[in-house]
Amino acid sequence: MTSDFLLYQAQTTPHPLAMEVSHAEGCYVYDTNNKAYLDFVAGVSACSLGHRHPKVVKAIKDQLDKYMHVMVYGEYIQEPAVELAKILADNLPKSLECTYLVNSGTEAIEGALKLARRATGRSQIIAAHHAYHGNTMGSMSVMGYEERKQAFRPLIPDVNFITFNNTEDLKQITYKTAAVILETIQGGAGFIEPHANYLTKVRTRCDEVGALLILDEVQPGIGRTGKLFGFEHYNCIPDILVTGKGLGGGMPIGAFTASRSMMQTLQEFPKLGHITTFGGHPVIAAAALATVKEITESNLMADALEKEVLFRSLLVHPLITEIRGRGLMLAAITPSAEIATELILKAQGKGLILFWLLFEQKAIRLTPPLTITEEEIIEGCGIILDILDDISAKF
């Protein structure tokens, strides 16, 4: 299977981890030798409730017994999509009442950028250095890493960049600005939180000049930071909210949410201002609805903050210089990229799944399912510390 994987399936790097997966359950992934791997990554923050959560699986099976895809998005009334949009509105500020369901986080970013330009009649977008919002052309245009973009230029024009947490840069937001797009917590850059009321100050500046604020919650959203949406920690309500990853409970999804009046600008002049064939797919929407219900009706969000405390108390080691993030969106920072890579690769050999962050090469991603137990956290952190002890012994 490995040779076929490398031959027939397009690869993203020269050296994939290449674990051959047999099945997954709860917080464990199993290979074809039936070896269990404790999952501290959750499909890169996507499997909020772990693997094959019973309520998500039941929702999928129940919907499969009714119908799958029947019509392009927005034409037919399909209960799972309607109920998903409604439960999001019920758990968001009143100004965020209308949701457009799409297929991925990057498509949701594309829709949000289009919506901002359409609603304001302006073209300029302000993004942040070291930002990651996806990998399609529009999303890449607001990515803050030139080395990742230069091979694919030209990208969309009229995009300027500011430095996250730098309030002096907010002067660059002007009456020409359609929208400022920021990750609520910068992900690929190393799980960097906003400091000193930064997002509140961005919100104020946007209001002063009539620019919209887009917050990308593809990673922090859906309970991962201890609240349903990360912005709830920072006294800042966006005009457009983007979600994905954990919303689907392991199924592919994205969404952008705004006021109804703003979203209506995509209906005419031209009609079909944003269209998708499979967005709002009933099976995926059913999985997402079950996921949001379970997270909002349980103690998982409060528990995520307690589990953060446990992670921070356990992961004390000379080769861990810092733990960044909030809730179960955490990154352990090591002294070098080499140490981070050695830890990740050795952990897989010892039955623990860790992973890199996209840009901060010294970081170890710690984004387990919200359902992870304290015992599993202790087990996984013990493996990390043992490996770091082995690495330390070489110095």
UniProtKB/TrEMBL annotation:
Pfam families associated with the record: Aminotran_3 (PF00202)
Alphabetical list of InterPro entries matching this protein: Aminotrans_3 (IPR005814), Aminotrans_3_PPA_site (IPR049704), Class-III_PLP-dep_AT (IPR050103), PyrdxlP-dep_Trfase (IPR015424), PyrdxlP-dep_Trfase_major (IPR015421), PyrdxlP-dep_Trfase_small (IPR015422)
Superkingdom per UniProt: Bacteria
Molecular function GO terms recorded: identical protein binding; pyridoxal phosphate binding; transaminase activity
Entry's transmembrane regions: none
UniProt keyword Transferase, yes or no: yes
Cofactor(s) annotated in UniProt: pyridoxal 5'-phosphate
Record's keyword annotation contains Transport: no
Keywords per UniProt: Aminotransferase, Pyridoxal phosphate, Transferase
Similarity-based family: Belongs to the class-III pyridoxal-phosphate-dependent aminotransferase family.
PANTHER family: ACETYLORNITHINE AMINOTRANSFERASE, MITOCHONDRIAL (PTHR11986:SF79), AMINOTRANSFERASE CLASS III (PTHR11986)
Protein name: Acetylornithine/succinyldiaminopimelate/putresci ne aminotransferase
